[in-house]
Structure prediction request, 288 residues.
Amino acid sequence: MKFPDIAEVARRSGVPASTLRFYEEKGLIVSAGRRGLRRLFEPAVFERLALIALARASGFTLEEIARMFSPDGRVRIDRQMLAAKADELDRTMRRLGAMRDGLRHAAVCRAPSHLECPTFRRLLAAAASGAIRAPESTAHKRRR
Amino acid sequence: MKFPDIAEVARRSGVPASTLRFYEEKGLIVSAGRRGLRRLFEPAVFERLALIALARASGFTLEEIARMFSPDGRVRIDRQMLAAKADELDRTMRRLGAMRDGLRHAAVCRAPSHLECPTFRRLLAAAASGAIRAPESTAHKRRR
DNA sequence: CTACTATTTCAAGTTAACTTGAGGTCAAGG
DNA sequence: CCTTGACCTCAAGTTAACTTGAAATAGTAG
Prediction:
């Protein structure tokens, strides 16, 4: 089992075969070769997939993730980019924290309408002022 | 300026007119009436839009946001749902925090390859184990 | 009253990240 | 050798959240 085929990779990584092909097409992973038509992967693909999953879960687009790898397959370290992304995550987290507090409060608030509740209004004001609005990226739900 | 038209709302809220129409179609906002063909909005629409922006920025889908309002336009308080969402935000924040730490570390790490760095590998392991993977919702980039 | 221009509706297009389906291929088991 | 089933390719479909464009309409300035 030195060079797993696509089914094996799918099984062990949890990533569907269709997605693996898609990722290969996008340059996110590479197959080590073929046996007949069939792709064979290097075992390192699992680490690569873990990294991709982590990055995806943190808000990177596939485009950005692809740019994280050099053509030779190594991780390219763009310190600038990494730091910028970390800052962005910080901002996102602060935004989420505000929303969470708002929700927690709303769940127990006694005001006749949330729009009359000072705590809620503070949140709204922040949102309206754009203090909360991320310019380029935003956390949201995935399809499915 | 008691009942702003769509252009006025767009100008003051920063939300494009096309989006306002779209939101109305989706039941996220309502127009107070028409002058001829043209929509007129109640001033309260601004608060509503702020709330929508906040919720969107926190990972709610338009579907979910729509369900936050009762038919009469008031905020519907489903304490259960609010608390659940708050918990979810907490989990998301923890995930983002891990990634941020990973990025910050990667930006200064001296290891020859990130894949050889213990800190980075811990992150990968967590990602691979699914500890980090959110089942239903994930933070990611918005289209442009 | 006429012309101008913003607004309207409705359908179709866009983007990201995949999934699905049709039709073809080939390695392995019997 | 032949069948079978997993894989392959390529095109098209899917979803969310909007945007864009065409053709119609109607307040408003003159």
In short: Residues 79-108 of chain B form the longest helix (30 residues).
